Structures are given as C-alpha cells and as structure tokens.
C-alpha cells in the first residue's frame, strides 16, 4: 500500500463501525466509509464534531450539523489549494489519498519538462480536478473531462486557487464520447488519467458500468497516446476491484509501448496507527528517451 503522510490540513482521527472521523483544516466531519468493518470507540460521542453524515433508509442521506462551520473553505497540500464543501452522498469535493498519485505524476512531468518536453495530459472522469491541478502546477497542459457541469466548475475554482487555470481546458461531456471524437480528430496526449466510477450516467443518459466498460475504454484511450507516452494512470474506488486487475488491463492494452506497469493499494494513515484503504491504482510509466 502507498500512503501519504504529509498532509497538514487533513487527518483521519479515528475509525469504527463503518465511519471515519476526519479533520479538514479546522472542521471535524464524521462520514461513512465501507472499508471500516472493525469496531473501535464511540465516534458519535466524540467532542468537537461539526457535522455527521447520516444515511437514509430510503437511499442517499444528509448532513446532521452539530456546530457552526463555513459552507465551504480551503485546504492546502504542499503548493496546491482546494475548496472543500460537504455535499450530497457524503462527498466533500476532494479525495486526500490521491496525493500519492499527484506526487508521482508531478515528478514524471517535472522530469520531462526539465528535458525540454512539453506534456499534454488528458484527465477523464476528472471530478473536481485534484489531478488536473497537480499536473498543471508542474507545467503540463491538461484537458479536464467530466459529465457533471457542477464538478467541472468546481475544478475551475480549484485551479484558480492554485494559480493554474490557464493551463487547463475544461470539457463537460461523456468521457467515452469525448475519447471517440478525439480519436477521429487524430489528437494525441503524452499522458492519460482516469478515475472511473463503478456506475454512472452521462448527460444524455449514457450508461457506464466499470466491469463491462473499463477494458474496452482503456483500449480506446491507448489510441490517443503519443509514440513514447509519459504515463497512464487508472484509479478505482470500486470495492473488490484488486490492484492486479488494473495492472492486467494496462499490460494488455498498452503492450505496444515500452515501459513499466505497476499496481498498488492507496491509503491514508490514521491517528490509531493503522492505514485506511482508499482504493487501488494502476500506473504505466513509459520508457525515458
């Protein structure tokens, strides 16, 4: 497992019975987490909690506010800044464990830039732009694609906070349709990032199921890579999808390129002295010229 332990504005304080207690700068939130199947202390009774996300028996859920806190605020990770806002379905607008992948991608981009290479990155299912902002901050030109207009707008806010808005092109579209058009146009990218959901619908009712669509979609995305790609990253939160599955998909679809493929769990250390699993990633790194 790869973990990140240098967050200053984020911390997992405790975990127990399907919940995690988090500090987002000065705000304490208690949210569900499906990986927490063990029993710890009574998290609901902890002092200082600002809000608890409670699921509804009818589906969805909402925030039970216990103490006043801002509707939205900013957190920092190194030289990056992101807006946090508790939203529906327990989201806050950021996945802190992805700092592991931000660091890896930034190192690859900065090394390529130091050798005089311009880097074009395609970020698919890009959400609020954590990866887009990280890559742009290191000098890449990023095309950010997501079907949800609100999330793309939030990505723009995050980019402006970090001073990289001019380095990102924002596209509100179904990712599969966008990739198909880019193939027809003959456009090419040095790197591809994708963070696909388990299930989703596009703006016109398009259906995405990760078990049925991921392999063929990665195969299509491989057609957008330059002859010597810098990297290809797949991240997945789908419970039960093992890292080796992502490695196998990359190995089978990127067989025509020289490089190294690896896969790993992603997690965050907690104050309890354990690591909380937060998904899996597969990373192809191309051969350096």
Give a short synopsis of this structure.
This protein is of the alpha/beta class and 289 residues long.
Oligomeric state, counting identical vs distinct chains: single chain
Main beta sheet: 8 strands, mixed
Indicate the overall shape. globular
How far is the N terminus from the C terminus? 29 Å
Explain how this protein is built.
The chain has about 290 residues and is of the alpha/beta class. It is about 25% helix and about 35% strand. It is built from 6 helices and 17 strands. It has helices at about 100-115, 130-135, 150-160, 175-185, 210-220, 245-255, and strands at about 1-5, 10-15, 20-25, 25-30, 50-55, 60-65, 75, 80-85, 120-125, 140-145, 170, 190-195, 200, 205-210, 230-235, 260-270, 275-285. The strands form 4 sheets. It has an 8-stranded mixed β-sheet with strand order 1-16-17-15-12-9-10-11, with helices on both faces. Strand 16 (about 260-270) and strand 17 (about 275-285) form a beta hairpin. The relative contact order is 0.14. The model has no long low-confidence stretch (mean pLDDT about 95).
Descriptive terms for the model:
single chain, 289 residues, alpha/beta, globular
Chart the SSEs and their pairings.
Blueprint: E1 2-3, E2 10-16, E3 19-24, E4 27-32, E5 51-55, E6 61-65, E7 73-77, E8 80-84, H1 99-114, E9 120-124, H2 130-137, E10 141-146, H3 149-162, E11 168-172, H4 175-185, E12 191-194, E13 199-201, E14 207-209, H5 210-222, E15 231-236, H6 243-253, E16 259-269, E17 275-286
Parallel strand pairs: 1-16, 4-5, 9-10, 9-12, 10-11, 12-15
Antiparallel strand pairs: 2-3, 3-4, 5-6, 7-8, 13-14, 15-17, 16-17
